[in-house]
Amino acid sequence: MTAAEDEYICINCCHPSSSLFLKYSDNGIRLTPCSNCGKAVDEYIEYDTVLIIIDLMLQYIEAYRHFLMNTNNRVTFLLFRTM
C-alpha cells in the first residue's frame, strides 16, 4: 500500500489502514481489523462524543490517536469550538 491509500492508522499499534469500517447494507457496518495486531483499527468511531471527550481527559493514547489521526478537520474544529 502506498501512503496515499493509507488514510487512517490503527489506534492500537499505529499501523496504516485504508479504511475504518466496511459497509454491508444501509444498517450494517463492520469495523476493519488491523492487519498487524488483529484488533479493530478504530473502535472509537462507534463511541458517543461525550465518551471520547472523557477518554481524552483521562489521557488514553488510543483516544488521542483517534482524535488527531482518524477524524476529519471539521469534527475537530467543532469540538474545540464547543469547549
Automatic annotation (TrEMBL):
Q: Which InterPro entries match?
A: Arv1
Q: How does it sit in the membrane?
A: Multi-pass membrane protein
- Specify whether Endoplasmic reticulum is a keyword of the entry: yes
Report whether Transmembrane helix shows up as a keyword of the record.
yes
What is the top-level taxon of the source organism? Eukaryota
Q: Would you identify the family this protein belongs to, as annotated?
A: Belongs to the ARV1 family.
Q: What protein name applies here?
A: Protein ARV
Q: Which organism is it from?
A: Litomosoides sigmodontis
